[in-house]
Each structure stands twice: as structure tokens, then as C-alpha cells.
DNA sequence: CTGAAAGCGCTTACAG
DNA sequence: CTGAAAGCGCTTACAG
């Protein structure tokens, strides 16, 4: 009532046929202007070629004149296609995830899809409920988070097209980076420098990639006859690195690899605070090559993956899945590249 | 056809009443189960209290049993409320903007709104068209970008609730940081160190905040009797800082302030490459206190603003505007805080 | 308080 | 090729 009155008051004082409340032109307006049936307008606009050339032309002209924009909500109702995708992440602030988001956003936009982003900061249950909330309004989901159990993810994937980034839930499409190769490059570098005992500061216990990297490290340790040790971090952040530092030192390793650059940076900061020189007394390396890795002194040795591309690839795979109605064959793990910088150096016994 | 057959094939082989294609329960299912009219279900679910307690209870029970989730698209059609907000940014990668996005996302989520993000990397026209595309599917827009002319923004604001971040288009709601105070703090610090000639490396020519900061700097220069010079950067990035470096040196200033930390970092990198010591020969400062400012050596003196809060505040203001139907009174400019670190020091003539 | 009806802006078989 | 009709899943005056 109130709403209507307000809307009416805002209308121009002409007695034009009733205008939609939004003030936007609809296919009915076009139909009237072009002298055709609304259904013809719909056809002309949504699948060109199904209508005679001259009618189509007339309709296009009318649409342009009325500055017509299709209403995606209205279209979504009969078709069930919302033309929007969701990406759910644990923490937008993490440099790794926003690169992924950017890649995803671009791929989505270039296919005329809209991207909504959901951050699930809190618990895994918050995450699940965010997904639940989004479900009816999206055509698919990119899951770039570590909080959900594989079975839960598989379950969601049963209800909506989904692709996971950096995890491989059973039966679910995913895009991952090549952990074995990444770790192999990094360890090769460290071994060449003479390191024989290496620490790995892990990411969250639920993180698939962290587990992968540790597994790869175990494999490398056998190959090279290394002593390796896994150290928990609490969280994949600078603070996580701080928290792990004492255990790193206590382990007497000569080199430490962080699950990600954030952790590695945290470790370097603690080392600096404790007067332990990097890399002379302790070599440090990470993964991701985030902004800041190059800035810190010494600059951080790390393994880079093309995260933008991972995000884009996830969206492309998702779109294909939406098209075909069934999950797409997973692509190869994405290649990685070792970036050697100043934080790693020759092994040398640290004075006790 | 194909679609329907597929859907049918997927259905359980019972002869249950026709299920909606989505497989989700609708209010009709609830109505049937609860033995009431669909309109009653709608009322019970959307505005509790308009229905007798016991019917409501029955309906809730049925809804829960069917695991009902309202379809936001379907609701949007009659109401015109999509429950989604858009935030449009120039570059997601910019640390400043993703902090803002995070704040916006949280505020939106806590009001049960969904946030879609649009990146407009390219030209201002790409930006305008992205907005155009989003317009029908959102209830409001947060504009955190620098590419659009104030009149264009004002025009868009006439068609959809909008609030701008870090610009003040005429007649448009906005949230901005307190440039005058920020610059005053920073210049006070530099003056105390003995600097009398200061360079300002600007952001994009279309950037309202960059202009604000420069204006404030001019005002400060009068107050303190300083020589100040504005230097263009091309872009608000590290590369922009690189590009501006020669002009900075050529200007013979003893201190330089970047429009943002990215530019300041770029300048520091060039200085390091050229063997110019910071801060001994050149003091450098920035704005934003991004991740990385603390990592670089020497750590960057900068002015911090609470960007998360800015994003959240923009969303709140937008929501109020959507409620009331008219723009909300702008809040005070947000306070800022000077963070003094190692990149600024006493003025000293640089050897030619 | 609740039911029956109309409508939001599209799409898509079904006829012709 | 195009029109007329029904329907997508909701909401909301209008009656009772």
C-alpha cells in the first residue's frame, strides 16, 4: 500500500499504460512498441535466429530504444538458471585466496556470470550454513576452503554443481596444484645446499594441501635420506608461524618449510626477534609467493603457483559441468615454480 | 524436453505429485503438508505474527520437515527486493580494496544480504557496463572505485541506492577517511624531523582521495612554510612508484609521500636499486598500512585507516538508504592513525 | 486469521 | 515464424 502510493507519486503524471514498479522496460513494453507478441520478444532476445530477421531487427530496435535490460531474477524462475556462481572462502584477507577470487571473477564475468563471494571466517558449520543460504540462488559453487570434511563436500556436490580448489573430495571436481612437484623442487634446492634435517610447519589439520605437502615431503625424505619432522601451526597465518617458532628451534632442523608464505614470514619474524640469522643459522621457505614475500628481508624462497589461473580454471570447469550436467574430468595438477631468494642458504650447524 | 526427461529420469520412481524441477520443496508442498493455503505459508514465513500461533507452528514444522529454503529469486520478483548488494572495485588485488570488501561482506552477511563483487580492471566504460549489468539484480551498490566521473556516479545513484567509498559525488551518500587529519599528522611528523621540501606522488588523476590528500598537503605547506610538489604516478601501484622515482629525485625533496603504500614501496625499491639510502637520504611515507608495509626494510611509515570498518559502514549506510527510501546523512570522515616506522628520519641534504 | 486470485517478468511447449 | 497460454515460486491486496 504505502509502497504503491509512493511509487505512483513518483510516476510522471501521464496516463501511460501501467509501468512496472521498477521503472524499467519489460518485454511487454518492447512487444507493444514493436507490434509483436511478448513471447516473440523473448525468443528474439534469448536465442537469436529463432525469429525472422526483420522481426528480430524491429525487436532489437525497440529494446534499444527502451533501454531494455533483461531481469535476471525473472529469467531465473522459469529456467532455473541464475547465471550466478558462488565462491566460498575461509578468509578473504589471505593473499592466496584473493588471487584465486580475482581469477574466478574474471572467468565468470567473461562468461556473463555474476560472482558472489561468501566468507566463512568462523567455524565449518558457519560455512555449511552460508552455502545452504546461497544454494537456491546460484548455478554452482567454487569451494576454496579447508574447513569442511570431504564427505560433507561430496554431499553438497550431489545437490549443486561444485568444484573444489586445493582439495580432492571423492567424486568431486577439483583443481589442485602439483604438490609432489612443488615439494620435490624445493627439497632438491635444500638438499643441494646441504640440508639433511628439515622441518615442515603444517597448515590447518583439515587442509588437504597441507597433508599433500607433508606426504610429498615424506617421500622426498626417503629418496634423499633426510630427517624430516612435522610441526603444527594452529593457523595458516603469520601468527601461526610465530606460534610454531619455538618448536622449530627445538627440533634442531637446519631448514624449515612453512605450509605457506604467511607461516614462513611469521617464523622469520620470530627468528629476527630472537637474533637467529636467516639463512645463516636457519633456512626458511614457504609456498604461494604472496605479495610481501619479496619485500621481507631476506626475501623469501618460495614455490609459486598461478592462483589467478586456478580460480579461472575452477570456474571454467564449473561452467562446463553446468553445461553438461555432469562433473568434468579433472585437469592435470597445476604446475608450480620454485623461486629461490635470500631466505635459504647453505646448511650450517646452529650454535646451541 | 531433454532437460525434463533428464529430470524425470532422476526422480524416484514413485508417483508422488509433480515435484518442482529443482527438487526443492516449495511453499505449496508445505501448504499441502500443513493443510493450509500457500498464501498462509507465505505469511507465516515472511512476517511471523500475522498468523495464528498454532498455524504458524504447524507451518514451521512442515517447513522444517521438508527442509524448505525460500527461493530468493522467486521472492524478488513480486517484491522487487533481491537481498543482494554489489560492491564494485577497480582492482581486487589492491590490499586496500580487499580489506574494504571483507568489511562489506561481513556487514552484508550479518543482515542476511548476499554480496556480489564486480571488478572493473579496465576502463571506466567497462565499469559502467558492469554496473549496468548488475543493476537489475541488486538492491544497492557500494562503489569503491576511482574511475567514474562524479556526474556519472550521481546519475547511477539516481537509479539505485548507492554509497561511494572514498569519493564524494554531489548528492550521493559516501564514506570517506579524514584526509585533512591524516595529512596533518603525517606532515607534522615530517616537519618535526626537519623536512621543509616534500614531494607528493599522486594516485590516478580521477582519484578523489588523491586530490584530497594533495589539497590537504597544500594547506599544510602554507601553515608550515613548506615547499611541496605534486608528482604524477600513472597508477596507484608499485609500478607507479617505480615510474615516479626519477621525478622524485629530480625534485630534490628530502621527503616523499606516496598516495598509497604501494607507490611508497615502489619508490623505496627504486631508491634501494639506486643506492639511495632510506631514510638517511630520503624519507618515504605512504597511506593505508597494507600488509607488506611492515615487512619491507626499513618498515614503512604510513597512515592507517580502518578499511574493514569503512566497508562495513558503507553497507550499513546503504541498507539504511534502502530501508528509508532516501540517502542517509553522511557520517563523519573516518579517523586515521599515523604509524611511524623506519622509513622516515631526520632531513639531511642529499649529496648531488 | 485465512483463502482465492492476480501478478511479478520471464520462458517454452503447443498450435497454427 | 509467431501467437496464446501456462507456469516458474513467491507476495499481497481483497474478501470473508
TrEMBL record, chains A, B:
A molecular function GO annotation: DNA binding
Coiled-coil stretches: none
Pfam families referenced in this protein's UniProt entry, alphabetically: LacI (PF00356), Peripla_BP_3 (PF13377)
SMART domains per UniProt: HTH_LACI
SUPFAM superfamilies xref list: lambda repressor-like DNA-binding domains (SSF47413), Periplasmic binding protein-like I (SSF53822)
InterPro entries, alphabetized: HTH_LacI, LacI/GalR-like_sensor, Lambda_DNA-bd_dom_sf, Peripla_BP_I
Keywords, ordered alphabetically: DNA-binding, Transcription, Transcription regulation
Stretches for region Disordered: 1-23, 325-352
Name of the featured protein: LacI family DNA-binding transcriptional regulator
Species annotation: Microbacterium deminutum
Organism phylogeny: Bacteria, Bacillati, Actinomycetota, Actinomycetes, Micrococcales
Amino acid at each position: 500500500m504505502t509502497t504503491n502510493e509512493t511509487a505512483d507519486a513518483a510516476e510522471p503524471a501521464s496516463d501511460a499504460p501501467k509501468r512496472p514498479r521498477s521503472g524499467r522496460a519489460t518485454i511487454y513494453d518492447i512487444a507493444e512498441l514493436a507490434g509483436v507478441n511478448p513471447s516473440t520478444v523473448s525468443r528474439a532476445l534469448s536465442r537469436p535466429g529463432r525469429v525472422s530477421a526483420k522481426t528480430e531487427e524491429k525487436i532489437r530496435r525497440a529494446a534499444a530504444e527502451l533501454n531494455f535490460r533483461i531481469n535476471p531474477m525473472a529469467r531465473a524462475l522459469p529456467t532455473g538458471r541464475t547465471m550466478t556462481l558462488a565462491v566460498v572462502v575461509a578468509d578473504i584477507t589471505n593473499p592466496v585466496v584473493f588471487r584465486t577470487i580475482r581469477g574466478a571473477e574474471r572467468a565468470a564475468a567473461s562468461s556473463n556470470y555474476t560472482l558472489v563471494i561468501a566468507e566463512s571466517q568462523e567455524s565449518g558449520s558457519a560455512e555449511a550454513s552460508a552455502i545452504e543460504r546461497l544454494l537456491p540462488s546460484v548455478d554452482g559453487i567454487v569451494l576454496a576452503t579447508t574447513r569442511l570434511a570431504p564427505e560433507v563436500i561430496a554431499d553438497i556436490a550431489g545437490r549443486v554443481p561444485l568444484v573444489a580448489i586445493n582439495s580432492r573430495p571423492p567424486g568431486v571436481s577439483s583443481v589442485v596444484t602439483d604438490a609432489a612437484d612443488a615439494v620435490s623442487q624445493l627439497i632438491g634446492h635444500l638438499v643441494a645446499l646441504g640440508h639433511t634435517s628439515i622441518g615442515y610447519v603444517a597448515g590447518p589439520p583439515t587442509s588437504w594441501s597441507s597433508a599433500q605437502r607433508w606426504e610429498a615431503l615424506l617421500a622426498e625424505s626417503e629418496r634423499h635420506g633426510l630427517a624430516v619432522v612435522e610441526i603444527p601451526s594452529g593457523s595458516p597465518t603469520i601468527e601461526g608461524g610465530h606460534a610454531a617458532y619455538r618448536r622449530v628451534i627445538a627440533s634442531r632442523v637446519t631448514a624449515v618449510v612453512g605450509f605457506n608464505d604467511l607461516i614462513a614470514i611469521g617464523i622469520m619474524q620470530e627468528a629476527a626477534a630472537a637474533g637467529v640469522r636467516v639463512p645463516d643459522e636457519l633456512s626458511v621457505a614457504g609456498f604461494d609467493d604472496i605479495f610481501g614475500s619479496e619485500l621481507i628481508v631476506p626475501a623469501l624462497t618460495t614455490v609459486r603457483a598461478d592462483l589467478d589461473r586456478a580460480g579461472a580454471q575452477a570456474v571454467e570447469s564449473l561452467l562446463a559441468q553446468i553445461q553438461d550436467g555432469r562433473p568434468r574430468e579433472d585437469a592435470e595438477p597445476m604446475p608450480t615454480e620454485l623461486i629461490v631468494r635470500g631466505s635459504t642458504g647453505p646448511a650450517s650447524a646452529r650454535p646451541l
